[in-house]
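Justification of resources, computational component.

The compute hours requested in this renewal are based largely on the per-chain cost of generating structure records like the one below. Each record pairs the submitted sequence with a full structure-token output. That output is archived, and it is also reused by downstream analysis tasks.
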Amino acid sequence: MEQPSERDRLMDAAYRALVATGGAALSVNEVLRAAELSTRAFYRHFTSKDELLLALFRQDSDRVAARLRRAASAEPPAAALLAFVQAMLRITADPRRRQRVLIMSSEEIARAKGFVAERQRYHALVQGELTGLLERGRADGTFPLTRPASDAGWIRAAIQHAFDEQIAGTAPATPNETAELLTGFALRALGATGH
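The structure output for this chain reads:
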């Protein structure tokens, strides 16, 4: 079995340290102790604690974006939209993924220099996948009323609202029920045929 790289060890140690504090603080020395690496090893991979935190966020956001990309590629487009919403909301139902979301949205990561740009990059990836899905639906007649660029933003905002409610535990329905309701609303708004 291949040993984790220094970078992977540092990122894993940083995540475990954030979990231990509930995302409240991170000490590079604590990360180095947990990873059993030197300061020199840290600086071979990261220029600062902020860069480490942003690398953690990017790794997680890229994993979510890849999952959403697979969901968005389903056929037909109406099924892809449901799969996309389900993929996003199911994160909240899995305890380990839910914990990662909470850590990735913690104060410590949000304070990292460059976090706003990194979060915007992630939102642009998500919106891009939705836009492409809606464009496919417009092209094949499934979504005759769609304006893909603007509708993707509204749908992403609705998904984010539902996601936030699920994470906070204030949602009136389960993730699967919410996904069905939200997708039904979106399909009606898009003028989806056959639904």
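The domain at 1-46 is CATH 1.10.10 (Arc Repressor Mutant, subunit A). The first helix runs from residue 6 to 21.
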